[in-house]
UniProtKB/TrEMBL annotation:
Organism name: Odobenus rosmarus divergens (Pacific walrus)
Protein name according to UniProt: Galactosylgalactosylxylosylprotein 3-beta-glucuronosyltransferase
Catalytic activity: 3-O-(beta-D-galactosyl-(1->3)-beta-D-galactosyl-(1->4)-beta-D-xylosyl)-L-seryl-[protein] + UDP-alpha-D-glucuronate = 3-O-(beta-D-GlcA-(1->3)-beta-D-Gal-(1->3)-beta-D-Gal-(1->4)-beta-D-Xyl)-L-seryl-[protein] + UDP + H(+)
Location relative to the cell: Golgi apparatus membrane; Membrane
Membrane topology field: Single-pass type II membrane protein
Main location: Golgi
EC number(s) per entry: 2.4.1.135
Site residues (Interaction with galactose moiety of substrate glycoprotein), renumbered to this chain: 222
Transmembrane region(s): 6-25
Length: 289
């Protein structure tokens, strides 16, 4: 009996081994890649991620056409008004720290949107140093030059008057044949330092704005004296008898103002700030926008 069982076992053993080997080879084969099937959802995604049922229209309408038409029927938001351009007029002259101070000022202006830098050299020609500096600054800029006459370089006379007037003349010529775009002008000396918050506030200037200035005139700060929203005087430490006893860095004028765009508007060499800003200059003092 045992011999019969052993004989049958050895007869079936090769076939069992063949079956096991075939199963093992089949399991090691890589699975065929799955082809993705297109999925058509009966919903469309609305505002806020809400799922809305898809309305079927005409065959040529396409999926989601009804939702698009509902969006088109809603009133579109009004476009925001253009950002007023800030024009900074900077007089500069050759000295050892010129490039260092211009670099500090440029690093501030790069962080201000819609700013145009008018750089005016006190020289008979544009210098290579300032030309290369402006080319690498990456700012919308205009490079001008005008020398200061020798007779105006005496102590006690205002400095950089010719350069500021050259910047005003360029700005007036720019807006002479076109309607003045919204913008604000200010005089940024190359040794000044500015807070970025100031540029946001100056864009709201409607006519003329005046701000305090720190570390000037032998005092910790100079500022306008304001009563009922109007400038009535000045807190200053240098020549308080001046009609406009304030540093140039404190004055901001709207480009749309007739004073700045009037023919002949400028700064007098022997006069004080603002006495030649145009026909409506008497109205500048009491305005604080």
């Amino acid at each position: 009996m045992k011999s019969v069982l052993f004989s049958r076992f050895f007869i079936l053993l090769p076939w069992i081994l063949i079956v096991i080997i075939m199963l093992d080879v089949d399991t090691r084969r890589p699975a065929p890649p799955l082809t993705p099937r297109p999925y058509f959802s009966p919903y469309v995604v609305g505002r806020g991620g809400a799922r809305l049922p898809l309305r079927r229209g005409r065959p040529d309408s396409g999926p989601g056409r009804g939702w698009q038409k509902r969006n088109e029927s809603r009133p579109q938001p009004r476009p925001e008004p253009p950002l007023p351009t800030i024009y900074a007029i900077t007089p500069t002259y050759s000295r050892p720290v010129q490039k260092a101070e211009l670099t500090r000022l440029a690093n501030t202006f790069r962080q201000v949107a819609q700013l145009h830098w008018i750089l005016v050299e006190d020289a008979a020609a544009r210098s290579e140093l300032v030309s290369r500096f402006l080319a690498r600054a990456g700012l919308p800029s205009t490079h001008l030059h005008v020398p200061t006459p020798r007779r105006y370089k005496r102590p006690g006379l205002p400095r950089a008057t010719e350069q500021r007037n050259a910047g005003l003349a360029w700005l007036r010529q720019r807006h002479q044949h076109q309607r003045a775009q919204p913008g604000v002008l200010f005089f940024a000396d190359d040794d000044n330092t500015y807070s970025l918050e100031l540029f946001q506030e100056m864009r709201t200037t409607r006519k003329v704005s005046v701000w305090p200035v720190g570390l000037v005139g032998g005092r910790r700060y100079e500022r306008p004296l304001v009563e009922n929203g109007k400038v009535v005087g000045w807190y200053t430490g240098w020549r308080a008898d001046r009609p406009f006893a304030i540093d140039m860095a404190a004055l901001y004028v709207a480009i749309s103002s007739t004073s700045i765009c009037a023919p002949g508007a400028g700064l007098g060499v022997r006069s004080v700030v603002g006495t030649r800003l145009g026909p409506s200059s008497p109205g500048l003092l009491p305005v604080l926008s």
